[in-house]
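Dear support,

Our group has been running a series of protein-ligand predictions, and this particular one with nicotinamide-adenine-dinucleotide is the one our PI (initials K.S.) wants archived with full inputs and outputs. We had some confusion internally about which version of the output was final, so please treat the block below as the authoritative record. The input we submitted was:
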Amino acid sequence: MTQQYQIPVPAELPERIQHYIDGEFVDSADGDTFDVLNPVTNEAYIKAAAGKKADIDRAVEAAQRAFDEGSWSSALPRERSRVLHKIADIVEERGARLAELETFDTGLPITQARSQGRRAAENFRFFADLIVAQADDTFKVPGRQINYVNRKPIGVAGLITPWNTPFMLESWKLAPAIATGNSVVLKPAEFTPLSAGLWAGIFEEAGLPKGVFNLVNGIGEEAGDALVKHPEVPLISFTGESKTGQLIFGNAAPWLKGLSMELGGKSPAIVFADADLEAAINATIFGVFSLNGERCTAGSRILVERSIYDEFVERYAAQAKRVKVGFPHEPETEVGALVHPEHFEKVHSYVELGKTEGRLVAGGGRPEGFEQGNFIAPTVFADVPPEARIFQEEIFGPVVAITPFDTEEEALELANNTKYGLAAYVWTNDLKRSHNFAQAVEAGMVWLNSNNVRDLRTPFGGVKASGLGHEGGYRSIDFYTDQQAVHINLGEVHNPIFGKSKDA
Ligand code: NAD
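Confirmed final output from the archive:
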């Protein structure tokens, strides 16, 4: 392919991407590597170590040793909290470098990569605060018994993450897993392994003991699979596609592992006629086109009340056409390049399919001037029927389906009419309706008159095919710890006495 674009390459890229095991950067035991592509040119720009079972075994052994040794797993919450705050400080200090690498590797617009970096730091700060404030239950039965909860880290947690906002999503699992005293083995997504290597230096500098954090790169079906099937890894926290989640669920079953799964979505934004239309349009444009549409909680189906439907579609399409597609490193870019040519092909095929299923009102293919790389213009289909595949299936790109409704009942039926249930966004100024609708919609998270703005204390997770379990706030602490119940007798020993009969 001829190199058409001149885009800056970050200075001082590593020679190759390696694993990080027991405090050392290492290659795969068999020396195998895979190519990592630049999403703007689709040229391979670096090789990454392709981890297999032998590398996972080594990483788990190191993690287990660090756990058993106890300097982290038995540290006081305040000591762990200090290290976590330091990690957050360093992530913030290195924000510019982190964003530069993330943008180069993923195709995310630089301004959005910067804000994801700040979120990553905040995740560490949040759990640093939470573990020192942690209180566990104690129950008293006066004069008879005291019962208390002895909370303990579990051991080695396996963390498997996707390629959309990789560093931030890694922080989401690393922070609570480490905060609670576990050791971890992280398996980042193979499309975007570059930024994960930064964790090693950050953790070392912050004072995390050697072996607590381990990183194994590789293909999901090899490195990820070996982690899921490792008998000494009792916990798997996974974020990715629903069908991968199903596979992992089955593969983890023989060991009855603890599983937390954040999966796919096809979240609805429901706009009633009484909504603040300007705010609803701005938020729903951002909701599906930010992060290149590669966002699990994207509001990728917009349901609009019929009386405002035509106006909404016209204004929405006009604004979508003005969304600025550009090179990921340019500060004015709003939509960059999709992560990988395979993903580009998938999104592009949905765009073509959409032309047969709905009415194309914006976008519809490559934007002008971007004949190479993984660029797709923000694409809007109107009049999309609920049985359409572009209404039902997760596209994970800058593509949105708009559908009219006549009544609140119909809106709810349409909103719930997919296998997914991650997020929902409701736009109305009717107080009763907003709460009734929010409570009835099948979604793990609902925002009323708002885009996705997260409060880290709230549960995060989906229902139906969108997930299993909840993380977020103390729920993450619960997932990464065992809660052992300890019962103390204060009075008479309380049980019937067997074996006292003289006739026996
Ligand atoms: P994916 O399922 O293809 O891969 C996710 C991770 O799983 C990668 O690290 C991959 O290597 C690994 N993997 C793949 N096969 C595996 C196997 N057999 N065993 C173990 N590990 C395996 O997902 P993706 O394409 O990287 O990410 C996009 C998906 O993630 C979308 O569906 C999106 O909605 C979802 N997602 C969900 C959330 C959420 O919180 N609900 C957040 C972000 C992304």
